[in-house]
UniProtKB/TrEMBL annotation:
This is CCHC-type domain-containing protein. It holds the Pfam family zf-CCHC. Keywords: Endonuclease, Hydrolase, Metal-binding, Nuclease, Nucleotidyltransferase, Transferase, Zinc, Zinc-finger. One of its GO terms (molecular function) is endonuclease activity. Transmembrane segments: none annotated.
Length: 593
């Protein structure tokens, strides 16, 4: 560690060393010591040979190493350009004269006058002490009367009294009776320059251009990759002289610049790279950075890029090898290969006995016999959200109060961990068809709440939307009535719907109103979510409609009592035969034992 600190402190820019080479070498030493950006910036600036460049760099505000290097290179470029336009010439060395006071200068002028006229005095005068000793041409002003030719000590007029105590023995500044009020010390305030634009430019990135580190600008509006000729020559690339017009903003008939040539280079940005990529070479003054990465590199099949908050992510797609693409794909190939993909839903996998809660005393043979009728109705059992169906009995609608405006709120700020969990939940919901992308004017924020199991549940804050939603009254079951009905019962059975609210679809107008916003995207619910006003009543209405005429009070117990006694093993597993026999009710069967 001591050797690293010594190497860092001794690393200075060489007399002919390029600023970029010094920058990256010094940056490597700082990264080896795991220094902060502020410490890294200070060490880099202290090792710069040019004092003017160091002072300029210290006066600038930098947030990343990329912006620091861009400032250093831009200053170096302007300095070289100015030096060629204004060549410096050697000037004689002038010793600065000693600084003299006003009275010393006056005495010097008096001595010069005395030297020019003959004098019998052997020693020079020590200077004036009274008004009579001053030269007649002096413009000495009296502070007492305001006249010239004498000082206040020799003024013939009465002395002005002190404005504080009216005494003539002292001046106002020496008054002890009524001294002047001392002004309070000046207060300092920290003033920071604010800007509408972010300090961090996420489109500025580090690049490896033929294994030489430089700074690049990710420009999706540029059709090609452009590089400065200085970097191209340092990377020992073979430059072929080709002049091509570069059209920029303005007149398309008049090109803004002309290329100096073209070459190929290995380009790597973040986690993506491409070998032998075609590059256009331009002059150093044509572009503000070393390299401009355009669409010819960004649109490669194995490269993906997207913006997330203040970060531009560039990565390689999984399963695609850039080397294999460059070697095996021929530009002259005209064959197109297509794959037939079925749009049907995937076949549901059968349920296993591990998916069902069964009494531990049941044998393996009995377990298999039980799973057979369950898998015959496999479509009514959903293991995942993707297998969840919707009812066709009704759709939920949201009737808003007259005169209400669309609810549009900002997303709640969350931690990076919660953002990843939210994105994963939304991806699962989109795959299952529960939510879809939205361009609705409505936007309600989301938040994560903790479940009892320790997992996270994604909830939408619909409080603002519920305030402008009309009531939809519907009678709900009373818990006291339900308990009184079950007071004398000993065997209880329940039927629990899997995500019951999500099995009720919504009208198209209601889908727009349930749109929500996260820190990364917007979406809307295709089905009825939790937290909406009127959702419990709509769900209860749907359940009453579906069960009307099917689940009458006491019918379950009666069906169990009248269940037919099976005569063999085939009838035991053949529920259709038993159902038909029980339905006919031609004869009364004994209750099974």
């Amino acid at each position: 560690m001591t050797d690293r600190w010594k190497a860092l402190s001794e690393r200075l820019q060489g007399e002919t060393e390029h600023i970029a080479d010094y920058f990256y070498d010094k940056l490597r030493l700082c990264q080896a010591l795991q220094l902060t950006f502020t410490e890294t910036r200070d060490h880099i600036v202290m090792g710069i040979r040019s004092q003017e460049l160091a002072v300029y760099a210290m006066s600038r505000d930098h947030c990343t190493t990329a912006t620091l290097l861009a400032d250093l290179q831009e200053w170096q470029r302007l300095y070289e350009l100015r030096r060629t336009q204004f060549p410096t010439t050697a000037r004689p060395h002038v010793v600065p004269a000693a600084k003299t006071t006003k009275y010393e200068q006056r005495n010097t002028d008096t001595r010069r006058t005395a030297d020019e006229t003959p004098s019998t005095s052997a020693t020079p005068s020590e200077g004036p002490t009274t008004s009579s000793d001053l030269p007649k041409t002096s413009t000495v002003r009296c502070y007492n009367c305001g006249g010239t030719g004498h000082i206040s000590r020799d003024c013939p007029k009465p002395r002005k009294p002190c404005s504080g105590c009216q005494s003539t023995t002292h001046s106002r500044g020496q008054c002890t009776v009524n001294p002047r009020k001392v002004a309070p010390p000046a207060e300092t305030y920290c003033v920071e320059l604010t800007s509408r634009y972010p300090k961090v430019n996420c489109f500025m990135k580090d690049i490896l251009f033929n294994d030489i580190r430089a700074t690049c600008l990710i420009d999706t509006g540029s059709s090609d990759v452009l590089v400065r000729i200085g970097l191209a020559e340092r990377s020992t690339s073979e430059i072929r002289k080709v002049c091509r017009p570069l059209v920029t903003v303005g007149d398309t008939n008049s090109p803004g610049a002309v290329t100096l040539g073209e070459t190929t280079a290995d380009i790597a940005v973040d986690n993506a790279s491409a070998a032998d990529h075609p590059v256009l070479v331009v002059s150093d003054d044509s572009i503000p950075v070393d390299v401009i990465v355009g669409r010819t590199w960004l649109n490669l099949p194995h490269i993906s890029y997207y913006k997330r908050q203040d970060e531009l992510v560039i990565e390689t797609l999984n399963g695609i090898n850039s080397t294999a693409l460059s070697e095996n794909v021929s530009e002259e190939s005209t064959n197109v290969y297509a794959a037939l993909v079925s749009a049907d839903k995937p076949t549901m996998t059968p349920l296993l006995h591990t998916d069902v809660k069964i009494d531990p005393g049941v044998t393996e043979a009995e377990r298999g016999s039980l799973m057979t009728p369950i898998n015959e109705d496999r479509d009514v059992f959903a293991k995942t959200l993707a297998e969840l169906n919707c009812t066709d009995v009704m759709k939920m609608n949201i009737d808003k109060v007259q005169g209400s405006d669309p609810v549009c709120q900002k997303p709640y700020r969350t931690s990076p961990t919660d953002r990843r969990i939210t994105a994963q939940i939304l991806n699962d919901w989109k795959s299952a068809g529960v939510v879809s992308d939205s361009t609705s004017p409505y936007a309600s924020p989301v938040l994560l709440v903790n479940k009892g199991t320790g997992e996270k549940r994604l909830c939408v804050d619909y409080r603002r939307l519920n305030q402008q939603t009309q009531n939809q009254p519907y009678p709900m079951p009373d818990i006291d009535d339900l308990l009184s009905r079950l007071a004398e019962s000993r065997i209880f059975s329940t039927m629990d719907l899997s995500n019951g609210l999500l099995q009720i679809p919504r009208s198209e107008e209601a889908k727009e109103k349930t749109a929500f916003v996260t820190e990364e995207t917007t979406a809307r619910f295709e089905r009825m979510p939790f937290g909406l006003k009127g959702a419990p009543g709509t769900f209860q209405r749907n359940m009453n409609t579906v069960s009307r005429g099917v689940m009458q009070p006491g019918q379950k117990v009666h069906a169990i009592k009248t269940f037919p006694q099976p005569r063999d093993a085939h009838e035991l597993t053949g529920k259709d035969v038993a159902y038909e026999r029980g339905r006919s009710r031609r004869r009364r069967w004994r209750c099974p034992t």
